[in-house]
């Protein structure tokens, strides 16, 4: 091989190496902090979003997930997205209450008739009020992930009727509609971070907890609060991106991100509710008891009667038509 050909070959190889390195360096990083661990359902779906986006764009985007609250979680994760410190998150709707009070529509106790009606709400025009509020605050909403079944776990009493709430101290995430409902049935409430609930139950600071069934099981709260009421309240993990960053991406990439997230949102709804039987089995295996008043029309009527004052308050806040469309869902 002549020295000229050798030089050309070396230069070509160097150019290819430099090109590959430049392409890797040019990948757009998407940082996503989340409260939960990567092996939870939400963690897995967040990872799948990143994998699908990378595959569809030939690694144009690199998604870095910070699970377990190691970077930000909850309202701090939402704030970090709003400020542009990270690009996305998908934390619970309670993380967005400072930007929109309309998220309280989701958690009206004994509101939606069933999970499918709630999913229709998330995919329909009624949820647009939440989207619009968040857009004004600097977010782009990619999708909503149904949080699945909520429960109230208690140390001693198994809740089966409204009067069973009397005297309970219940941990909540602070949603006004939930707090008002529980107080109206005779309980008091405390806002405690999820990672402190186990010890608070153990020490007797609280004697009940309101949270999602998956969090209740995954955080092993069943060990200290073995009596579980499946309560027909609903919530959503709101998947948001920083609006300015999102709109700076090519239009075709924006659509791709929206499409992937929307598809995952629909699948997540089915997956999280399929886990309910597994969660119930876990509670019973540990010697706990389970009540599910949503399966009994008479019990639903009793709870709705007790919650009438709460419903009147949310009607004044959100409008009679909107609230009644939820309460009258079939």
Strand arrangement, major sheet:
7-6-8-5-9-11
Order of helices and strands: HEHEHEHHEEEHEHEHEEHHHEHHH
- Stretches where pLDDT is under 50 for at least 5 consecutive residues are 3-24
What is the helical fraction, as a range of percent? 40-55%
What gap, in angstroms, lies between the N and C termini?
Answer: 80 Å
Compute the number of helices: 14
Number of strands: 11
Which descriptor suits the 3D outline? globular
Q: Estimate the mean pLDDT confidence.
A: 90
The oligomeric state is single chain
What structural class do you assign from the helix and strand content?
alpha/beta
- Radius of gyration computed on alpha carbons: 23 Å
Major beta sheet, specifics? 6 strands, mixed
Query: Percent of residues in beta strands?
Result: 15-25%
Word description of this protein:
With 330 residues, the protein is α/β, with parallel strands linked by helices. Helices cover 48% and strands 17% of the residues. The chain contains 14 helices and 11 strands. The protein has a 6-stranded mixed beta sheet, sandwiched between helices. The chain has a 3-stranded antiparallel beta sheet with strand order 3-10-4. The chain has a two-stranded parallel sheet with strand order 1-2. Strand 1, helix 2 and strand 2 form a beta-alpha-beta unit. Helix 2 runs antiparallel to helix 10 and helix 13 crosses helix 14. The termini are far apart.
